[in-house]
Amino acid sequence: MQAIVSAANAPRLRLLKTIDSPILLQIEIRGMSTPPKGSVSRVPHWRCLRDWLSLLRDSNASAGTATNRKDTSLPEQKTAEPELAPWLTAMAELVQRETQPTRLPYPPEITLRLAVETAPLWQKIERDLKLRYGPPYWAVAWAGGLALARHVIDHPALVAGRRVLDFAAGSGIVGIAAAKAGAAVVAASDVDPLAVIAISLNADLNGVAIEANVDDLMPADSGFDPAAFDVVLVGDIFYTPDLAARAIAFLSRCCAAGCAVLIGDPGRADLPVDRLEKVDSYEVLVTRDCQFFGAQPQGASRQDASGLDLRAANVWRFAR
Ligand SMILES: C[S@@+](CC[C@H](N)C(=O)[O-])C[C@H]1O[C@@H](n2cnc3c(N)ncnc32)[C@H](O)[C@@H]1O
Questions:
Q1: Do residues 265 and 236 make contact, with C-beta atoms less than 8 angstroms apart?
Q2: In sequence order, what are the beta bridge partners of 25?
Q3: Domains in the chain, start-ordered, CATH in brackets?
Q4: pLDDT at 213
Q5: pTM score, two decimals?
Q6: Ligand 1 centroid to residue 62 C-alpha, Å
Q7: Listed residue (94, 138, 66, 106) closest to 290, CA to CA
Q8: DSSP strand E in 152-297: where?
């Protein structure tokens, strides 16, 4: 269903379509240098569907434009968070303000919005946006993701013409690699809403389309159907024991549904090596300050001539 409601006085949000729920929104950021046009982000699931619709209706009503109430078919409800549109815009502005488009030294095919320093950015996110999703993982190119992105670009047959999920996507680096390598469809998922904004911006920066969403796909009752994908790509998710255990259960389900599951990892202690087959090894260039959030990766790193860390990272296939 196309453009059921259009928010006339909130032009930065445009409702594209609904498939029962959730809603898909296109985030349009006017007057910015790199509008994420063409990138589609799913509404954060922790925002009530009715609140979003109420907000859009209210926006249209106050602008004196017609709304298609018939199509929305939800009862009227007071908007719980009327500041939603500015809030979402503020998030997008923060991501743009606090990051620099950075061509990766490896793989150089990809440019990402990366933070120069992550600690002050983390502080701002917690203080100004009141978001508690931990460090800005999305503003960093992680060793596991770098290795997997390199691998996918070098082996396009893994994803070409296939439906790919970049799970725990962060910046979206791996999904961008898959899109560049010819994937038919790329979806990216991360629980941090700022990651979804960053993925949209990064997809645009690289001229690819990625559907990003903030649903937590891991619970067995999340409604996620792994059969919707042929390939699941995962960069650096085994950084805490709890997350690793949940990820193993989730990836097992993907595997059982017939997905090819590939993992990029810098040697995290909780990587389930007994369930994996090593596919390839890489030495990737990473920024120094942020590779050690969570569990310490195993193995030493050394510096290249430009002062970046060279770190070993492997690509694995989830076998069972
Ligand atoms: C170390 S970062 C890796 C990001 C990216 N894959 C890369 O390699 O650059 C781990 C990411 O996992 C995300 N994450 C944590 N729990 C998650 C969950 N339950 N579902 C999806 N993503 C999750 C975090 O928000 C973070 O962006």
A1: yes
A2: 15, 41
A3: 13-81 (no CATH), 99-318 (3.40.50.150)
A4: 80
A5: 0.78
A6: 39
A7: 138
A8: 163-167, 185-189, 211-213, 231-235, 260-265, 276-286
